[in-house]
Automatic annotation (TrEMBL):
Coiled coil: none annotated. It comes from Paenibacillus aquistagni. GO terms for biological process: cellular response to iron ion. It holds the Pfam family Peripla_BP_2. Residues 75-340 form the Fe/B12 periplasmic-binding domain. This is Iron complex transport system substrate-binding protein. The keyword Transferase does not apply. Transmembrane segments: none annotated. PANTHER family: MOLYBDATE-BINDING PROTEIN MOLA (PTHR30535:SF34), VITAMIN B12-BINDING PROTEIN (PTHR30535).
Length: 344
């Protein structure tokens, strides 16, 4: 029998600590540009007609709100290391006036992050943000709560617009990840670069999906996450990897209608997956995680365990989405249907 927990308890802790983690160790690849300042489009300096800019965001309750940026933002407070890494990858780190809520895990941008004006590695105070006189705040939607950095109206009343992203209330999908990237491009007036990135990612995903059409079967795949000694299942609305599994020719096992379910060995056996994917946080010991399943006597009769089909993937990209999305999509496809990729 499944042991269900309310999402407001453990999930909030896990997502807050993990979802803003360092992005995948893959740099943004856009043709004819490495997205550094020396190679950026000149639209920021010449295209003043881009502003004022009005756009829609969603708060943590899923309510749609309108925001307006009167002029090009040059002093941005960023809440969350993941957002900062997006800006570094697109060559926009000089706009960051303050960075807070850091993750301690591995990042290929570690040295660049150290050079940024770090406010705190936790939630910053309202006062510390106001002292920086920002013209924009970029953060995940769940940060805008009274007990964290204040709700969106608090900042709007002070003439500071916000850009939210990574909203789990409205549901996390690959399209919503691309929308976050696109919105960043609109707000910073670097749409040529962000659109090129999104188009390239979509092209790569389309190629993977075409290969998957050749599959002769549809393996059942179970996604499991781990927090300490606890094993849990993510509902499709809380991750992106369900779409990768389905797009790669697999069947994502929906354990429950609940968005978050704690899993026991009996729970795993009851769905008896053909393959298991475990979300490992950044540089987790993948071999150790896999062996927890392969060497667990209670799981010896599970099909995935008997056949050695247990794989660890990086948490951030699988759940929240990162700049290495298409790379993980292909990695998942090769795991779900290795026979389609022999010879590569």
């Amino acid at each position: 029998m499944f042991i269900k927990r309310k999402i407001s308890l453990l999930l909030t802790t896990i997502l807050c600590l993990m979802m803003l983690s360092a992005c995948s160790p893959s740099k943004v690849e856009v043709e004819q540009s490495n997205l550094k300042h020396s190679e950026k489009t000149t639209s920021n300096s010449a295209g003043n007609s881009h502003y004022p800019l009005s756009f829609s965001i969603y708060d943590d309750a899923g309510k749609e709100l309108q925001q307006t940026i009167d002029k090009e933002p040059k002093r941005i407070v960023v809440i969350g290391q993941g957002f900062a890494e997006w800006m570094i990858a697109f060559g926009e780190e000089e706009r960051i006036a303050g960075l807070a809520y850091l993750d301690k895990s591995f990042s290929e941008y570690e040295e660049q992050i150290k050079q940024l004006p770090i406010m705190t590695d936790m939630w910053p105070s309202k006062e510390s943000i106001l002292e920086l006189q920002p013209d924009l705040i970029i953060s995940m939607s769940s940060a805008f709560q009274k007990e964290r950095i204040g709700d969106i109206s608090f900042w709007n009343k002070r003439g500071i617009p916000v850009l939210t992203g990574i909203n789990y209330t409205t549901g996390r999908t690959i399209d919503s990840f691309f929308e976050d990237i696109t919105n960043l491009g609109r707000v910073l007036n670097i749409e040529d670069q962000t659109n090129a990135f999104v188009d390239k990612q979509k092209e790569q995903i389309s190629e993977i999906q075409k290969i998957a059409e050749q599959a002769k079967d549809k393996p059942n795949v179970l996604l499991l996450g781990m927090s300490g000694e606890t094993t849990y299942y993510y509902g499709p609305s809380l991750c992106l990897i369900d779409e990768m599994i389905e797009g790669a020719g697999g069947e994502y096992i929906e354990v429950s209608k609940e968005t978050y379910v704690e899993m026991s060995e009996e729970s795993i056996l009851s769905v008896n997956p053909d393959k298991i994917i475990i979300t490992g946080f950044q540089k987790s010991d993948s071999e150790a995680l896999i062996n927890q399943y392969l060497r667990n006597p209670k799981l010896k009769n599970a099909t995935a365990v008997k056949n050695g089909n247990v794989k660890v993937v990086e948490y951030t990209t699988a759940v929240r989405g990162s700049l290495g999305l298409a790379d993980l999509y292909k990695d998942v496809a090769q795991y779900v249907h290795p026979e389609l990729y022999r010879g590569e």
